[in-house]
Design brief:
By secondary structure, this protein is α/β, with parallel strands linked by helices. Helix content is 38%, strand content 26%. A 6-stranded mixed beta sheet has the order 9-8-5-12-10-11. The protein starts with a helix and ends with a strand.
Amino acid sequence: MQKYGEFLTLKIENMALQHHQSTNQDNASFKVPPKKYGVVTVASGEGLINAFREIGADEVIAGGQTMNPSTQDFLDAFAKINAQHILVFPNNNNIKMAADQAAELYKGADIHVLPSATIGEGYYGIGSIDRDNANVEEVMASVTEIMQSVVTGMVSTAIRDAEGDQVTIHMGDYVGYRGKQLLSDSPNRETATKALVERLGATQRDVMLVFFGEEVPQNEAESLVADLQTQYKNLEIMLNNGAQPVYDYIFVLC
C-alpha cells in the first residue's frame, strides 16, 4: 500500500544507521538491564543476513525454503538476546511451527511469533517496530498491519513441469511467483523477471527492494534495475546483493 512506502523507507534507512548493538553474549553474562524488544528472524544468504541485521534483527538464523531451522536453533538464538520481549519473524510458513514450539519452551523472555510468511514481510516488519512503545500488543498489531501491505515475489528455476492459474511451467525455465501463485515463466531469466514485476502490481507501489541471488552477476542485476526504473518512473527501486541460494531474485514491494 502506498501510504506505507515513504514512511518505511525512512524508517529502514534510520534503523540501518542506528543498529550497532553487540549480541555476542549469552544470558548468563548479561550485566545490563534487558532492553524492551529483541528480534529473531530467519534468512539464507550472506547479503540477506546482513540486511536483516542492519534493519534491526539481533539474531538471524540461517535457513529458508530448503533448510528449515530446528526448534533448538530458535532456543539458541533466544538465549543470546537480553530482552523482555523477543519478536520472531519466521519468514516462511514451514518454519513457523518450530518457532512456535520454541516459544512455548523458552522461559527467559516473553516470545512473540509474528505471522511473517515471506522475506519481504519479515524485512519490512522488523523495520517498522516501534521500540519506544511499551505496549507489546500495539507494537505487534502495527507490525502485522504493515506486513499485510507488503508484496513479495521470487524468481527461481523450475525443477519440474507444472500448471498455474496464468502460466504453464516447464522444467528448467525461470519461473516467477508470489506465494504459491505462479505468475511468469520463460527460458530467459530477464523475461520471466520483468513479467513477474508487472504482475506484482509495480505501478501501484512506491518502493521496491530487489535482492539478487548468488547465481546472478551484479552487472546483470544492475541492468535489470535500470530497465525497470525506466519503465516504472515513479517507483523507488533499491538493489541489494542478497547472495541468497534458490532464488535468483526476491522483489519486495510496498
